[in-house]
Structures are given as structure tokens and as C-alpha cells.
Amino acid sequence: MNLVFDIDGTICFDGQQIDEEITRRLTNLHNVRHRIIFASARPIRDLLPVLPKAFHDMSLIGGNGSIISEKQIIQTLATISHTDFQIIKDVIKKYDLNYIVDDKWDYAANVSATNEIYKRLDPLHLAQKQSIDVITSPIKVILLNISTQHFEAIATHLSEKAPHLSLINHSNELNIDITAQHINKYTAIEYILGSNPEYIAFGNDHNDITMLNNAETGYFVNNKALNLPIFENNYKLNSIEPNAASICKILDQLLDS
One GO CC term of this entry (predicted)? Predict the structure, then answer.
């Protein structure tokens, strides 16, 4: 079976590494020929430090589906157009926003060191930090620390002026994730496995909704800070507690099946 795992908040709870007991079970599942796919909001650059080296050859989805790595060969699936990127940059300038812009490997960033996401930004110094104007093929943009009073206006402006973008509005965190149109974790899964793929998925956030809703069986690692009523009528979706023990219980069931 194909098993797809989000990382942060799903199988990684400290932002730095996957729990050892989860890692052991994932290794065992791989050894009995289950295919393991990791699907993260992180770009591949920032996904690698979280994964044990033995997992680096597996299928990796990064940037909310904008980029993949298979056997350590990285491929960009879609970039944000020059026109849409200019609209984003105009918004950044107008509202004086913090941001992270990723291309295939390097990045541009203006983010406070106190922001949680700062700790996950190129922790092994694998890439080059660039000026935002040097980035010509962005795969993903995060707008950070948007003021409450401006959040809805910014989200609406981007939706209307740049309809060829995919937006994930994290209103609870006051962040907006931006990729090219029709790019998400599920479209990347389809690229890897083919159309109508069969898989089991684990996720915990807005960017996992499409992936979970299209899974044969989905496990929503219950982030109580989120209000995701879209899952209420999905009989294929199971809600589990956000801890390693709950994940390991499901992985043990898969190992025994």
C-alpha cells in the first residue's frame, strides 16, 4: 500500500526530527514493501534535515506539492508566474509583510527570528539566501504575521487579482501559503502514483485537506486549533490524537494487516 505522511504536527512534533518509535515503524513498513511518501509544506531543502538519511531516497513532496524528489532527484512541478509574483511582491511592499519565497533550492526571506518557522528555514545552511528580486522561478511564497485587520483584504485581493494562484489561508496563524494554480499535495501524489491513486494518508492542517479527502483511508491528526468541518461527513477519515503513541498504534495495525 502507498502510505503518505505529512511531517510537522503529524509525525514530527518538535520541528526537528521524527519521533524514533515512528521512524522504526516506518522503516519496518518500508521493509515489507509498503511505499512511503512524505508530503510537506517545507521545500525539499528543509524537508531533508527532518528525515533520517535512509529515507532520503524515498518519494518526497515539498512546497505543498510544488516540488518533488525521487531517489534524490529534485523536480519542480510548477512555478508562480512572473505576473502573479509581481502582484505578490506589491502586496508585500504595500503592507510591509514578512515573507519566505522558495525557488527550487534557494530562498528569499524577511522573517523574525522569533517566528517558529524561522527555526525550520534552511537549518543546515544548504542553500543561498537571495534578494526577493533575484528569485525568478518561485515555487512557493509564505506571507507571515499578517495583521488581523488586513488579513481578509489581502486574501481577497490575491484571489481577485491573481486567480491563477492556489492560496491556503491560515487565519489562525495569520499566514497565507501561495503556490501556482491547481498545486497541492494531492496533485503531487497523482504525479507520482498516477491518476486515481490508492493510498492511506496522515495529515493535520489546511494544506492536507485535499490529500486526506482523496485517500482510501485518512487519519486526521487532530489539531484542535483548527476548525475543519469539511471532514465531518467523510466516512473514510479517522481523527486521532496528536502524539507519537496514537500514530504508532495505527502503524502497528498496518504492519499486522
Answer: cytosol
